[in-house]
Amino acid sequence: MFRLSAENITHSNFPLLFSSLVVFYVGISLFDNANSDIITNLLITQVILAATYTLSKNGKIFIPAIIAGSLFISLRWLEFAVEGNKEVFQSLAILFMVGFMVLVFRNILAYLLLSKEINTNLILGVISGYLMLGVLFSFGFSLVEVLSDGQGINFKTENPEFKDIVYYTMITLTTIGYGDLSPVSDLSKLLSFSLGVMGQLYMGIVMAFIIGKFLQTDDSKNDESQGSSDQ
């Protein structure tokens, strides 16, 4: 099920996803504030649209991705419009986002496995997958903050902004850990070390594949050169 082939993932679509993620992180850092949920929604919407495009060559994955992505975006905007029960909308939105991310990550890993060469599209796809982990867990930590009445992470401020959550997510993902922010609740601690482990596993596995593919490509070139010299 959801079988991928080299033909349906070789088009250069990851630069668009990478660019949208750069816009998201820069936009959140520069423009987000306590009253700018609409900016966050616009930024995440353009990321979801770009990520959906990366799946556009495979119909079996593209359709579920459109459904999951559309439901996530709809719930995000409904959460912005509705006054009460925001945790319900956030919980459902993150549920659909997880499903959507699984499809995107599967596409990236499939490209990594099936690509016969190391190129810009491959590198940007790998980086995009890493950055999307940050997006996913940022909303996860945001939900934890809602469920714990702002007691999930020690932000050392009464009204933390979403960019503070993104900042905490990225320093955890990269295992920098400055110590200025720390998890407080059990759920936030669980998410924190899960994110750290996933980030390390992702980089370790991906780097192993890239190095193996590079060595394989180099061996192929050497074989071709040897064959030409023998002739």
Whole-number radius of gyration?
A: 20 Å
CATH uppermost class: Mainly Alpha
Beta-strand share of residues: under 5%
Percentage of helical residues?
over 70%
Instruction: Indicate the structural class.
Output: mainly alpha
Description:
The chain is mainly α. The protein has one domain (7-221): Helix Hairpins (Orthogonal Bundle). It contains seven helices and two strands; from the N terminus they run αααααβαβα. It has helices spanning 14-31, 37-53, 59-81, 86-114, 120-147, 162-173, 186-230; strands at residues 153-154, 182-183. Strands 1-2 form a two-stranded antiparallel ribbon. The longest helix has 45 residues, at 186-230. The termini are far apart. The model has no long low-confidence stretch (mean pLDDT 81).
Question: Summarize this, please?
Answer:
The mean pLDDT is 81.
